[in-house]
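Hello, quick one for you while I still have it in my head. Could you read through the record and tell me how the tokens relate to the sequence? No rush at all, and the record is pasted right below.
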Amino acid sequence: MNKTVFSFIVTFIAGLSTMIGVIPIYLNDKYKNTIIPISLAFSAGVMISISLFSLIPESIDLFITKFILFPSIIITLIFISIGVLISSFIDKEIEDKISNNSLYKLGVISIIVLVLHNIPEGITTFISTKVNTSLGLSLALGIALHNIPEGISIAVPIYYSTKSKYKAIIFTLISGFSELFGAILAYLFIAKYVNNFILGIILSITAGIMIHISIYELIPNTLRYKKRIISLLSFIIGFIIMIICIKLF
């Protein structure tokens, strides 16, 4: 098989794993007050873990290729702050339009942040697989595993706020397909022009957005359901699972 086609297929499968995250919407609605906080807390643990142990260190490493360590840390912090500001702006704009439905707003914000996150992932998976098949497959497996809770963070709030499985599936699919979109961008343009500095900016801004959505949206919405112990356990499990995935892949 042509290596370019194979790289597209690997990236597509990694992105499509997001769809596994729609499974909770098919569980009985009587468990809704347990499913929602568990899913949101789990997603918060995943997002914070990805930010702290993957996106931020990777951003610093990418900036170090142009600068020494201390300026690289400062530059990363600056773009993380920009990510937080962008997320705050998006949050405010969406809230002005759908302030009566916090779960739906959370689902929409999750789609935006995860599309921003998945496009660089698609670029990385495609290029890595094309250069080194073994490395690309390992990376794709790690991405596929952490895409599952990302799918949950979209599907669960969208479904329980709209009662529409169709919307939950379509919105989750958009997030998954953004990985393939990243691969297409890599093939057509980015592989030739994007350097480490640009990728570092993208990853650090994404980290800022993820940290903001976790602290200001996912966790507060989790606490509304008065399931403190089970939510905390779910957060810890999501956090630890992502650390394991990052270390392994």
